[in-house]
Amino acid sequence: MSEIVGYARVSSAGQSLDIQRDKLDAFGCTRIFSEKRSGRQADSRPELQACLQFLREGDTLVISRLDRMARSILDLSKISDLLKKKGVVLKVLDQAIDTGTSEGMLMFSLLGAFAQFENDIRAERQIDGIAKAKEKGIPFGRKRALTPEQCEKIRTLREEEKFSISQLAERFCVGPATIYRALQGAVR
Predict the structure, then answer these.
(1) Domain count, the chain
(2) Annotated catalytic residue 11
(3) CATH code where residue 81 lies
(4) Exactly one of 11, 34, 72, 109 is catalytic; which is it?
(5) Which among 75, 136, 149, 184 is most buried, taking Cβ atoms within 10 Å?
Protein backbone atom coordinates (compact mmCIF):
# COMPACT_ATOMS: atom_id res chain seq x y z
CA MET A 1 0.00 0.00 0.00
CA SER A 2 1.44 3.38 -0.98
CA GLU A 3 1.91 6.16 1.52
CA ILE A 4 1.85 9.94 1.41
CA VAL A 5 5.02 11.02 3.20
CA GLY A 6 5.85 14.61 4.15
CA TYR A 7 9.15 16.36 4.72
CA ALA A 8 9.48 19.72 6.50
CA ARG A 9 12.60 21.74 7.26
CA VAL A 10 13.52 25.11 8.71
CA SER A 11 17.04 26.51 8.78
CA SER A 12 17.44 27.41 12.43
CA ALA A 13 16.25 26.35 15.86
CA GLY A 14 14.38 29.65 16.33
CA GLN A 15 12.07 29.00 13.38
CA SER A 16 8.87 27.01 13.60
CA LEU A 17 7.91 23.94 11.59
CA ASP A 18 4.21 24.42 12.42
CA ILE A 19 3.09 26.05 9.15
CA GLN A 20 4.78 23.39 7.01
CA ARG A 21 3.50 20.56 9.21
CA ASP A 22 -0.06 21.96 9.05
CA LYS A 23 0.08 22.00 5.24
CA LEU A 24 1.43 18.45 5.12
CA ASP A 25 -1.22 17.23 7.58
CA ALA A 26 -3.96 18.94 5.55
CA PHE A 27 -2.72 17.22 2.39
CA GLY A 28 -3.07 13.85 4.12
CA CYS A 29 0.50 12.84 4.92
CA THR A 30 0.52 9.69 7.02
CA ARG A 31 4.11 10.21 8.11
CA ILE A 32 6.12 13.45 8.36
CA PHE A 33 9.88 13.74 8.67
CA SER A 34 11.04 17.14 9.95
CA GLU A 35 14.21 18.85 11.08
CA LYS A 36 15.78 22.17 11.98
CA ARG A 37 18.99 22.32 9.95
CA SER A 38 20.63 24.39 7.25
CA GLY A 39 19.68 23.23 3.78
CA ARG A 40 23.00 23.57 2.03
CA GLN A 41 23.65 19.87 1.40
CA ALA A 42 21.19 17.00 1.56
CA ASP A 43 23.87 14.67 2.97
CA SER A 44 24.04 16.72 6.17
CA ARG A 45 20.32 16.39 6.93
CA PRO A 46 19.60 13.10 8.72
CA GLU A 47 15.80 13.39 8.61
CA LEU A 48 15.83 13.97 4.85
CA GLN A 49 18.08 10.94 4.45
CA ALA A 50 15.76 8.87 6.65
CA CYS A 51 12.76 10.08 4.62
CA LEU A 52 14.40 9.19 1.29
CA GLN A 53 15.34 5.78 2.64
CA PHE A 54 11.81 5.17 3.96
CA LEU A 55 10.09 5.89 0.63
CA ARG A 56 8.97 2.91 -1.48
CA GLU A 57 7.66 2.49 -5.01
CA GLY A 58 4.24 4.08 -5.41
CA ASP A 59 4.70 6.47 -2.46
CA THR A 60 4.28 10.23 -2.77
CA LEU A 61 6.72 12.66 -1.14
CA VAL A 62 5.10 15.98 -0.24
CA ILE A 63 6.94 19.20 0.65
CA SER A 64 5.64 22.73 1.06
CA ARG A 65 8.30 24.44 -1.10
CA LEU A 66 11.14 23.19 -3.28
CA ASP A 67 13.81 25.01 -1.24
CA ARG A 68 12.81 23.00 1.85
CA MET A 69 14.27 19.90 0.22
CA ALA A 70 17.20 21.18 -1.88
CA ARG A 71 19.19 24.40 -2.21
CA SER A 72 21.29 23.50 -5.23
CA ILE A 73 20.71 22.01 -8.66
CA LEU A 74 23.14 19.22 -7.78
CA ASP A 75 21.16 18.22 -4.66
CA LEU A 76 17.86 18.60 -6.48
CA SER A 77 19.11 16.44 -9.33
CA LYS A 78 20.40 13.72 -7.00
CA ILE A 79 17.14 13.63 -5.05
CA SER A 80 15.07 13.70 -8.24
CA ASP A 81 17.04 10.78 -9.70
CA LEU A 82 16.64 8.79 -6.48
CA LEU A 83 12.88 9.43 -6.40
CA LYS A 84 12.58 8.43 -10.07
CA LYS A 85 14.51 5.18 -9.49
CA LYS A 86 12.31 4.35 -6.51
CA GLY A 87 9.12 5.15 -8.40
CA VAL A 88 8.15 7.94 -5.99
CA VAL A 89 6.12 10.99 -7.05
CA LEU A 90 7.08 14.41 -5.63
CA LYS A 91 4.42 17.01 -4.89
CA VAL A 92 5.41 20.58 -3.99
CA LEU A 93 2.37 22.29 -2.51
CA ASP A 94 3.20 26.02 -2.71
CA GLN A 95 4.54 25.75 -6.26
CA ALA A 96 1.87 23.32 -7.54
CA ILE A 97 4.41 20.80 -8.81
CA ASP A 98 3.53 17.17 -9.36
CA THR A 99 6.32 15.06 -10.87
CA GLY A 100 3.73 12.43 -11.71
CA THR A 101 2.92 14.55 -14.80
CA SER A 102 5.21 15.68 -17.63
CA GLU A 103 4.24 19.32 -16.99
CA GLY A 104 5.13 18.88 -13.33
CA MET A 105 8.53 17.42 -14.24
CA LEU A 106 9.23 20.40 -16.51
CA MET A 107 8.19 22.87 -13.81
CA PHE A 108 10.27 20.99 -11.24
CA SER A 109 13.37 21.27 -13.43
CA LEU A 110 12.79 24.94 -14.26
CA LEU A 111 12.21 26.00 -10.66
CA GLY A 112 15.31 24.12 -9.57
CA ALA A 113 17.38 25.94 -12.20
CA PHE A 114 15.97 29.32 -11.10
CA ALA A 115 16.67 28.55 -7.43
CA GLN A 116 20.29 27.69 -8.25
CA PHE A 117 20.63 30.87 -10.34
CA GLU A 118 19.27 32.93 -7.43
CA ASN A 119 21.74 31.31 -5.00
CA ASP A 120 24.64 31.98 -7.39
CA ILE A 121 23.63 35.65 -7.78
CA ARG A 122 23.31 36.03 -4.00
CA ALA A 123 26.80 34.57 -3.51
CA GLU A 124 28.24 36.93 -6.16
CA ARG A 125 26.62 39.93 -4.46
CA GLN A 126 28.04 38.82 -1.12
CA ILE A 127 31.55 38.53 -2.60
CA ASP A 128 31.19 41.98 -4.22
CA GLY A 129 30.00 43.46 -0.91
CA ILE A 130 32.94 41.99 1.00
CA ALA A 131 35.41 43.29 -1.59
CA LYS A 132 33.86 46.79 -1.40
CA ALA A 133 33.99 46.75 2.41
CA LYS A 134 37.65 45.70 2.34
CA GLU A 135 38.39 48.58 -0.07
CA LYS A 136 36.89 50.92 2.53
CA GLY A 137 39.14 49.39 5.20
CA ILE A 138 36.41 47.58 7.10
CA PRO A 139 38.11 44.74 8.98
CA PHE A 140 36.98 41.14 8.55
CA GLY A 141 37.72 38.06 10.58
CA ARG A 142 38.24 37.65 14.28
CA LYS A 143 39.10 40.59 16.45
CA ARG A 144 42.78 40.70 17.32
CA ALA A 145 43.48 39.09 20.69
CA LEU A 146 46.31 41.51 21.54
CA THR A 147 47.12 45.09 20.67
CA PRO A 148 50.51 45.92 19.11
CA GLU A 149 51.51 47.46 22.46
CA GLN A 150 50.66 44.23 24.29
CA CYS A 151 52.70 42.23 21.77
CA GLU A 152 55.68 44.49 22.38
CA LYS A 153 55.24 44.11 26.16
CA ILE A 154 55.12 40.30 25.76
CA ARG A 155 58.40 40.34 23.81
CA THR A 156 59.98 42.55 26.45
CA LEU A 157 58.81 40.39 29.37
CA ARG A 158 60.02 37.24 27.61
CA GLU A 159 63.46 38.59 26.67
CA GLU A 160 64.31 40.75 29.68
CA GLU A 161 62.42 39.16 32.55
CA LYS A 162 62.41 35.56 31.25
CA PHE A 163 58.65 35.03 31.68
CA SER A 164 57.51 31.56 30.61
CA ILE A 165 54.94 31.09 27.87
CA SER A 166 52.34 29.93 30.40
CA GLN A 167 53.00 32.94 32.66
CA LEU A 168 52.56 35.30 29.72
CA ALA A 169 49.38 33.50 28.57
CA GLU A 170 47.92 33.76 32.06
CA ARG A 171 48.91 37.40 32.47
CA PHE A 172 47.38 38.47 29.14
CA CYS A 173 44.40 36.07 29.33
CA VAL A 174 45.16 34.35 26.02
CA GLY A 175 46.27 30.90 24.91
CA PRO A 176 49.91 29.83 24.48
CA ALA A 177 49.56 29.84 20.67
CA THR A 178 48.69 33.56 20.78
CA ILE A 179 51.80 34.21 22.87
CA TYR A 180 53.98 32.35 20.36
CA ARG A 181 52.48 34.40 17.52
CA ALA A 182 53.10 37.61 19.49
CA LEU A 183 56.73 36.61 19.97
CA GLN A 184 57.04 35.98 16.23
CA GLY A 185 55.45 39.35 15.52
CA ALA A 186 52.38 38.01 13.67
CA VAL A 187 49.51 37.95 16.17
CA ARG A 188 45.88 37.70 15.02
Answers:
(1) 2
(2) yes
(3) 3.40.50.1390
(4) 11
(5) 75
